[in-house]
Amino acid sequence: MSALTQEMKDAMAKVDLFPFATASRAGVPNVVPVRYLLIENDNTLWITDNFFLKTLTNLAENPRVALYVYEPDTGVCFQIKGQAEVKTSGADYERMRDTVRQKKADLPAKSLVVMRVTEVYECRPGADAGKRLF
Length: 134
Known about the structure:
The protein is α+β, with helices and mostly antiparallel strands. It is 22% helix and 41% strand.
């Protein structure tokens, strides 16, 4: 089973900013807004690091991450959890960097955070709120 449904991918295509959460080894949370996110496939997201500081420190200590998606027009709302890996070179990094710089040439695109989706949860209000979808 794929983690991200077509409905989820359609909602993500309409969202401009994604809250991206990390935590230190000691569990201290950090949340940053992410604008440049690519759906690589149904189980993998590519997140561009343009200005991460605490986020990169946290990822070095703890690869567990979460991403929140809310698309107000349709009300689609879900949370994605996963494991992250940081890349600063290689074909994937270069493709991400080139894609981002085509949109905005002055962005640093310092690294690529590859998020492997491990869980997806419903966030819409109602009886299924918090239910694990994948």
